[in-house]
Design brief:
The structure is a single chain. With 394 residues, the chain is α+β, with helices and mostly antiparallel strands. The chain is built from 13 helices and eight strands. It has helices spanning 23-33, 37-58, 62-84, 87-109, 111-119, 121-129, 140-168, 181-187, 194-204, 230-254, 260-271, 273-287, 330-341; strands at residues 215-218, 221-224, 297-302, 308-314, 319-324, 356-360, 366-367, 374-375. The strands form two sheets. Strands 3, 4, 5, 6, 7 and 8 form a six-stranded antiparallel beta sheet that branches. The protein has a two-stranded antiparallel ribbon with strand order 1-2. A hairpin with a 2-residue loop joins β1 and β2. Residues 382-394 have low confidence and may be disordered.
Amino acid sequence: MSNKYSEVDFSVPPSQRHGVALKGEILGNIKEKLPELSSLLSNALEELHIVTRRFFSETTNKSAAIVGNHAFNDLDSFIDCLLSGDGRSAARASRSLYEHLVNYCEVMSSPEAAERYLEHKVVTVDLLGNLIHRLRHLRGTQYKQERSRLTKLKRDTLHPLKDALARFGTRFRRDWSSRNLYERAAAYGYDTHYDTYRLLSQVTHGSCGGVLGSHAEIAGSTVHRTGPSLELAVLSYLEGFTFFREFAKEVGSRQTIDTRRLVEDIDSLLAYWPKYRQALTEIDKLFWPESPPPGPVAIMAIYPNGRARWFFWEPALNRMKPAHPPEESEWMEERFRQHIEGGNVEVPPNMDGRPITSAVSGVQVTPQEGSAWFTASGILAHTAKPAASWLISE
């Protein structure tokens, strides 16, 4: 654990320590509150292994195999996200599982769509060949090798890309399909899930509403939280497993692969959703701060020899770092010296070299590079408390 957390009281819930929490606390709480989840997942993953092996061994439709590659890998990521409460990543994976479901149906139903899907790889390779900006980070042999590789990619895709665009139109650069996702979904009866897909897309697109679980109004103030979004994990759990369940059913009906047991195992996971929802909702309440956390504060310190230093104070951690002085700090430092010399600050005896300090509102300071966190009490033992505001803009 970083020493910056050494002053945090981990004996109380995060709600009572300004919302400061470690990921391990979330993992531990999820595991404790959902003891059956690991067994349910183990059953599903065991059956998934059989289905996956058969799928890649028996699927002759190359486009469908690629879609399956996406689906099985995204399910794996999706499950990891649910176990850790990483709702934002779970939402993205869940959203992708819907696309894989629809795309699988499309390439299995239409030879033309399957062909377009495979042909679209040339667009991807062309985009890879455009990554020349990376060359500035390389030197010597690495630079030459990467430059040659990118040049070859562009050269090899030049004519195939032209041919593909001539056959499928310039829109082919943006999307492999001749139909948009909604049209494809509607063709196979999955348009009823499209609004859910749009909701999950709010996270991917960075929309205002996509901050579910990491943004709240507390006591009239806006609070932004970084880290896992448990609210999005709850939302994504049901949708992601639903989308993959339908994918498994489609595989079972369109190919000679028995997916019935896998579907049953996913049904068990879907039935477990109310418990997952209840547990993560309870955990989430313990992690939101009871009141808006205090922001970082610039601290000016005047030492007995008259020297001034600046610090970056993180009240939520009760830790500090040495900071670079703000621009035009000289007049603020001189004003503070005059304030102290004018008898406005009661200086206790036995300062032992400690400085007189004051928080400076409206001023931003940047911690010094490579500086270490230290306990705030080492500096803030004697805090100047001016009777009136004295640091004002000039």
